[in-house]
User: Which sequence fits this backbone?
C-alpha cells in the first residue's frame, strides 16, 4: 500500500466532506455532489472507504468489516471524520500525517467555498519546547475516560444530570483540565470555579467508584438560597444558576464584553426585529443569551401543535413573526401604535455550545400548585444546521423573496456551511411526573454514548439517545468547527498577561510601602 496514495485519498475525502456540509441546504448543488454508498446494501449511513481499493461500505451493518476480512485488507477510513480503522487491531488508530492531511483539505475547501480573500493563519502542529518536554517526561499518565457515576445526595438527580453534561462539554473540559483555574491557589470563598476544578479532577482520576459532589452542592446552597434543601429542583434552573456562579468566580469576568469561560462557551446574541404596521419602520435590538427555551405548545391555544414536534419545528416557531398588541409597542419613527406590528426573533451570534430547553412544565392560570408536565414527544437530530435561524440567513432569504422563512431550503448564507453545523453531545432527560420525576443524562464520551443515572452508568447508543422523545428536557450541541481570529492573541492570554502586570505592580507597591516603614523605623531610633 503506497502511503502517498493513501494520503491523497484522505485529502479527497476531507475536501468532499466540506463540500457536502456546505451544499446540504441547496438541492441543486446537492444533486451534483456524488455521495459514497455502501457497495453491499447501497446505504449512505456512515460510509467507510477502504484504503487499499475503491470499495465503500457502511459501518452500522458491518459491510466494511466484512470486506476487510474477505480481501485481507487492513485499513479503512470514515469519510465524514477522517478516522482510520485498523482491522488487525479491531480499533481506530491515529496517524498524524493522515489527520493533518484531512484537516488541511477541509480548511482549504472552506476557503474556496467561502471566498476567503485573506489566507488563514498557517496550521502549525504543537511541538513541546524544552520546558514542556521536561514536564511531559516527569508527568504521571492518568486515565482520560471521565466516565464515573455521581452519588445522589438526597433528591440531587437534577444536579448530577447537569454536571455530567458539564463533564463532556469539550470547552469546559479543556479549560479546567488545562489548569486555567486551580482550586489550590484560589483564595475566593464559596468559589464555584474551584468546585468545577475539583469535579474534573475527580472525574478524570483513577478512581472508578461513584463520586459524591457534596462540596459542590454545599457551595450551590450558599450561593443560591432558592436551591437549598433536599426538595426536588428543576435541572434547567440549576443549570442557569451554575452558569452564573461559575461566571462570577472565574477569571476574565466583567460586566461588559465578558471573556470568562461561561460566556466564551455559551454566550450568543438574540436579535429582536419589530416592524411597525403603519410606517414599516424596523426597530432592531440585541440581547445576550446563554440558552434557548422552546415552547411545545402553540401560543394562545390550549393544546399541542397540530404537527409532529421536532427541534426544527420548535425553532421555526421560535423565529416566526409574532403580532404585538396595540399597547405593547409605540413606533419611534411615527410615534403611533398599530394592530399590525410584528416582532421576530433570530440568532445574531451563534455560541460555540448551544443549549436548548424544551418547556415541558407549565403552570395554568398563574397557579404554581396546578403545574403539569407536557409529555409530547420531540424529535431532535444528532446534527443540526443553524443557518436558517440566524439573522443573516433570514436577511438573505428576504432579499430572495422568501419572507425570511427558515424552511426555505434553496437559499444560502455567506461563508462555509461548517460555520453553522452543530453536533449533539449530551441530553438531559426527565422521567415521571412533575412532582415525582427523575433526571438522567445521555452523554457522548470519545464517540461512544453512555447513560448516567446518578451512580449508575451504562453503555448506550446514539439511537437510544435519539429515541428519548418524551423525556428529552435539555439538549446540548457543540460547533463542529470553532471560529477563531487569525493572527490575534487569544483573549485569555491577554487577560492573563494584564493580570500578571497588575500583580507585579501590586508587589512593587507593597515593597515600596515596606521600605518606607523600615526608613520610618530607622529615623525613629535616631531621633
Assistant:
Amino acid at each position: 500500500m503506497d502511503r502517498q496514495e493513501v494520503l491523497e485519498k484522505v485529502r479527497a475525502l476531507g475536501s468532499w466532506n466540506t463540500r457536502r456540509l456546505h451544499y446540504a441546504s441547496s438541492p441543486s448543488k446537492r444533486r451534483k455532489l456524488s455521495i459514497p454508498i455502501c457497495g453491499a446494501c447501497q446505504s449512505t449511513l456512515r460510509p467507510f472507504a477502504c484504503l487499499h481499493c475503491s470499495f465503500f461500505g457502511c459501518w452500522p451493518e458491518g459491510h466494511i468489516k466484512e470486506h476487510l476480512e474477505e480481501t485481507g485488507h487492513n485499513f479503512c477510513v470514515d469519510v465524514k471524520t477522517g478516522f482510520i480503522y485498523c482491522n488487525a487491531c479491531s480499533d481506530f488508530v491515529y496517524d498524524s500525517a493522515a489527520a493533518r492531511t484531512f484537516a488541511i483539505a477541509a480548511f482549504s475547501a472552506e476557503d474556496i467555498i467561502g471566498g476567503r480573500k485573506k489566507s488563514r493563519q498557517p496550521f502549525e502542529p504543537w511541538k513541546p519546547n524544552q520546558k514542556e518536554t521536561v514536564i511531559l517526561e516527569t508527568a504521571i499518565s492518568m486515565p482520560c475516560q471521565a466516565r464515573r457515576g455521581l452519588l445522589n445526595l438526597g433528591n440531587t438527580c437534577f444536579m448530577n444530570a447537569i454536571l455530567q453534561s458539564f463533564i463532556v462539554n469539550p470547552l469546559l473540559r479543556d479549560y479546567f483540565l488545562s489548569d486555567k483555574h486551580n482550586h489550590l491557589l484560589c483564595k475566593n470563598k464559596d468559589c464555584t470555579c474551584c468546585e468545577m476544578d475539583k469535579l474534573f479532577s475527580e472525574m478524570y482520576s483513577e478512581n472508578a467508584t461513584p463520586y459524591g459532589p457534596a462540596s459542590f452542592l454545599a457551595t450551590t446552597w450558599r450561593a443560591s438560597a432558592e436551591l437549598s434543601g433536599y426538595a426536588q429542583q428543576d435541572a434547567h434552573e440549576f443549570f442557569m444558576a451554575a452558569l452564573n456562579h461559575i461566571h462570577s468566580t472565574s477569571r476574565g469576568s466583567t460586566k461588559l464584553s465578558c471573556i470568562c469561560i461561561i460566556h466564551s462557551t455559551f454566550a450568543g446574541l438574540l436579535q429582536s426585529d419589530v416592524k411597525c404596521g403603519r410606517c414599516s419602520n424596523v426597530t432592531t435590538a440585541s440581547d445576550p443569551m446563554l440558552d434557548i427555551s422552546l415552547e411545545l405548545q402553540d401560543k394562545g391555544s390550549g393544546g399541542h401543535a397540530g404537527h409532529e414536534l421536532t427541534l426544527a419545528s420548535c425553532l421555526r416557531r421560535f423565529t416566526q413573526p409574532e403580532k404585538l398588541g396595540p399597547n405593547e409597542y409605540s413606533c419611534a419613527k411615527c410615534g403611533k401604535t398599530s394592530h399590525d406590528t410584528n416582532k421576530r426573533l433570530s440568532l445574531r451570534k451563534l455560541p460555540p455550545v448551544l443549549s436548548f430547553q424544551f418547556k415541558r412544565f407549565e403552570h395554568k392560570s398563574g397557579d404554581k400548585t396546578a403545574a403539569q408536565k407536557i409529555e409530547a414527544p420531540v424529535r431532535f437530530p444528532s446534527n443540526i444546521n443553524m443557518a436558517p435561524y440566524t439573522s443573516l440567513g433570514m436577511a438573505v432569504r428576504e432579499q430572495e423573496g422568501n419572507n425570511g422563512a427558515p424552511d426555505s431550503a434553496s437559499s444560502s448564507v455567506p461563508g462555509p456551511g461548517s460555520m453553522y453545523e452543530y453536533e449533539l453531545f449530551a441530553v438531559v432527560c426527565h422521567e415521571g411526573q412533575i412532582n415525582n420525576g427523575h433526571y438522567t443524562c445521555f452523554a457522548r464520551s470519545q464517540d461512544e454514548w453512555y447513560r448516567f443515572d446518578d451512580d449508575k452508568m451504562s453503555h448506550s447508543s446514539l439511537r437510544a439517545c435519539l429515541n428519548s422523545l418524551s423525556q428529552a428536557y435539555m439538549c446540548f450541541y457543540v460547533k463542529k468547527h470553532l471560529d477563531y481570529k487569525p493572527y490575534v492573541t487569544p483573549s485569555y492570554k491577554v487577560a492573563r498577561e494584564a493580570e500578571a502586570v497588575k500583580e507585579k505592580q501590586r508587589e512593587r507597591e507593597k515593597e515600596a510601602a515596606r521600605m518606607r516603614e523600615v526608613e520610618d523605623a530607622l529615623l525613629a531610633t535616631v531621633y
User: Anything to note?
Assistant: Residues 491-526 form the longest helix (36 residues). The chain has a mean pLDDT of 83. The chain has three domains: 3-114, 157-257, 267-479.
